[in-house]
Amino acid sequence: MLVQRAVLHDGEAFAELYDRHVIRVFRHIYYIINDPKEAEDLTAQTFLRAWEAIGRFQPRGAPFASWLLRIAHNLAVSHLRARKGDAQLHESLIDDGPPRNPEAVAQRHAEEERVRQAVLRLGDDQRQVIILRFVEELDYKEVAEILGKSVAAVRVIQHRALCALRKIMRVEEVA
Amino acid sequence: MPSIVEALADCLEAMRRGAEMEACLAMYREYRAELTPLLQIASLLRPLPPEITPSPVFRERTRVEILSRHEGQDGPSLAPDHPSGKY
Predict the structure, then answer these.
(1) Is the distance from CB of A138 to CB of A146 less than 8 angstroms?
(2) What domains can you pick out in chain A, each with its CATH number?
(3) What distance in Å separates the CA atoms of residue A33 and residue A82, rounded to the nearest whole number?
(4) CB-CB under 8 Å, A14 with B66
(5) How does pLDDT run across A70-87, given as a tens digit for each residue?
(6) B83–A67 CB contact, under 8 Å
(7) Do B79 and A166 touch (CB under 8 A)?
(8) Is B50's Cβ below 8 Å from some Cβ in A?
(9) For residues B8 and A159, is the Cβ–Cβ distance under 8 A?
(10) Omega before residue B83 within 30° of 0, cis
C-alpha cells in the first residue's frame, strides 16, 4: 500500500501520493486564500511538512487525504492571519455571469463571502465535509471514501456543519 | 418518516440536480422551518470552477523538491503529532 510505503520513507511512494492529492490540496487552500500563487506556495509547504511528518502518520487513524487537508488548512489559516487584511474577493465570486441588478449581485457576493469565512471556523470534520461536498461538488460516497467514514456519517456531519454555519452567522449578525 | 438528516441530504441532492428550493421543501413539510435556513446557507456555498488547478510547472517543481528532500534527509524531523496534534 502506498501510504504504508511512504511511512517507511519511500520517496517514490510519497511522490505518487503527491500526484494523487496535489490538486485537491491546492483547491482546498485556494478556497481559503483566494490567490493562486500563494496557494501554490502553501501547497508545496503542505506536502513538504507532510513528508517530514510522515513517520508519525498512523495508517489506522484518519485517512491520508484527511490528514493532508488538515495540514493544508492549518497552514492556510496561519497564512491568512499573517496577511494584512483579507478584503480580496474570490475571482469566482466576482465573475458572476451576465450582469444583473448590481446591488443584488453585491449583496449575494457579500453573503457568499460571509459563509466562506464561517466555513473556515468549523472543526476539521465539518469543514472538510462542507468543502468536499459543496466546493468540490463530490457526492456522499466520494466524500465518505476520502474521509474514511460511512455515507450516513457524512450526512450527519453535513447536517451538523450547516447548523453550525447558521449559528456562526447568527452570532455575527448580533455582534 | 425520514430524519432531518435524510431530508436535508435529499433536498441538497435535488437542488444539486436543479430542483427549486420550494419544491424540495414541499416534499418535507414537517421539516420546513428547520430545512429552510440550512438550504439557504448551502445555496451560498459556491463551487470552485474546475479550471482552478496548480500549474504544471509548479507541480513538477514541487515533486522534484519532495524527492530531493528525501534523498537528503535521514528521517522526519519537524514531525507534528498525529492524529491529535496541530497537523
Answers:
(1) yes
(2) 1-86 (1.10.1740.10), 99-175 (1.10.10.10)
(3) 12
(4) yes
(5) 999 999 999 988 875 544
(6) yes
(7) no
(8) no
(9) yes
(10) yes
